[in-house]
Structures are given as C-alpha cells and as structure tokens.
Design goal:
heterodimer; A: mainly beta; four-stranded antiparallel beta sheet; 12 strands; globular; B: mainly beta
Chain lengths: ~110, ~110
C-alpha cells in the first residue's frame, strides 16, 4: 500500500505570515491524485485542495497552493496570509488508480498566533 | 453542513457491548466510506460501499461489519467492543465508485468504550 508521510507533527505561524506543510508519499503508479484536508477543532474534515499527478501545474485555491514535485514524490501545502481560522490539523492524502480509498498521512497540527 | 449526516454524535458504552453507527450520504452520492480515527493510528480506512454493494475493504476487524441499504444510508456495526475501539468514526460519501475527486465527510461519531 502507498504510504503518506507528514514529517511535521506540529507547526506554528503568525497571523498574516506564510507557512508550508510538508508531505511525501511512496508509490510506483504514474497516475494518481493528491489531496489536503483540514480538520479544525469542530473535527469536520474539509477538502482544501486537490492535485492531479498528470498535471504539471500546481493547484491553487485562494490562499492555499501546493508545490507538487512528482519526481521527488513531494506534495507540500502553502498557506499565505495565515488567519486564525486556519488553525487545524492538516492531512495529506493519496489516491491511486488501483485504490478505492484515500490513504491519509498522520497529520500536521497548525497553530496560528496573533 | 457538509450534507453527510452521522448519528449519534457521541456514544459511550461498555466493553463487550455492540453498537451501530449510522450514516446518510450527501444527496446524489452513491458511495459511502467508513474511517476510524485514533490518536495512534491516524485515519484508517475501514470499508467502502457503492450503490448497496461492498466495493473495497481496508483494515476492518472481523468484529466490525457494515452494510448499505437501498436508500443508500449505511450502518457500521461494532461488536464485542474493546477499550481500544474508542475512536472517532467518520463516514464520507462521493458520487461515484472512484475517489479521484475526494470525499465529503460527515462530522463523525465519537465512540468511548469504558
């Protein structure tokens, strides 16, 4: 099974600053999909951004963008102009052509300070 | 409100007991997925149903079972409960059988086994 690794258990950022959360994955597939999910204290899992591996262009959703490095199997999330509401657990997830379910990393807890 | 409804939100029960968790998918979604989230194991995929049929199985214990009914709601049955089964159980749904576009999650059921 593909493994997803988030090497930063906790990160901290000041309001209005930029932070990057890291994610690496292990796969032998060439076509797959990557996701970032946010889990705020309400515990609701919310889809933040999605990337298709066959697209070289990095996905962007407002203040959220990714740096997708296919050869390095790296998929980092950049949050610009951080807001207090961005404080949450962030999970990286992988879905390949041979898989029916999303495979999640262990998560990174993001703290946003005023 | 994500459109995926899980009940109950909280459940406290004793070891050895059996409980049923319920999930109603978002309108129009045919797939239902069950995940277990614990502090040490992270988000673990349990099982997927698509249009009433089991589609994929993950790390689901033999003491656990699930089904999807004709109205597409799903139930996860947990029996002979152990302390280690205490976790947050998520249901998620998607339109099709594949997960290329990610899921929509419910708000989860917090199970505490005492």
């Amino acid at each position: 099974a593909q493994t997803v690794t988030q090497s930063q258990p906790e990160m901290s950022v000041q309001e209005a600053e930029t932070v990057t959360l890291s994610c690496t994955y292990d796969t032998s597939e060439s076509d797959y999909y990557l996701f970032w999910y946010k889990q705020p204290p309400s515990r609701q899992m919310i889809l933040v951004i999605r990337q298709e591996a066959y697209k070289q262009q990095n996905a962007t959703e407002n203040r959220f963008s990714v740096n997708f490095q296919k050869a390095a199997k790296s998929f980092s999330l950049k949050i610009s102009d951080s807001q207090l509401g961005d404080a949450a657990m962030y999970f990286c997830a992988y879905n390949g052509n041979s898989g029916y379910a999303l495979n999640f990393g262990k998560g990174t807890s993001l703290l946003v300070t005023p | 409100d994500s459109g995926v409804t899980q009940t109950p939100k909280h459940l406290i029960t004793a070891t050895g007991q059996r409980v049923t968790l319920r999930c109603s998918p978002r309108s129009g979604d045919l797939s239902v997925y069950w995940y277990q989230q614990s502090l040490d194991q992270g988000l673990q995929f349990l099982i997927q149903y698509y249009n009433g049929e089991e589609r994929a199985k993950g790390n689901i214990l033999e003491r656990f079972s699930a089904q999807q009914f004709p109205d597409l709601h799903s139930e996860l049955n947990l029996s002979s409960l152990e302390l280690g089964d205490s976790a947050l159980y998520f249901c998620a749904s998607s339109v099709g059988a594949e997960t290329n576009y990610g899921y929509t999650f419910g708000s989860g059921t917090r199970l505490t086994v005492v």
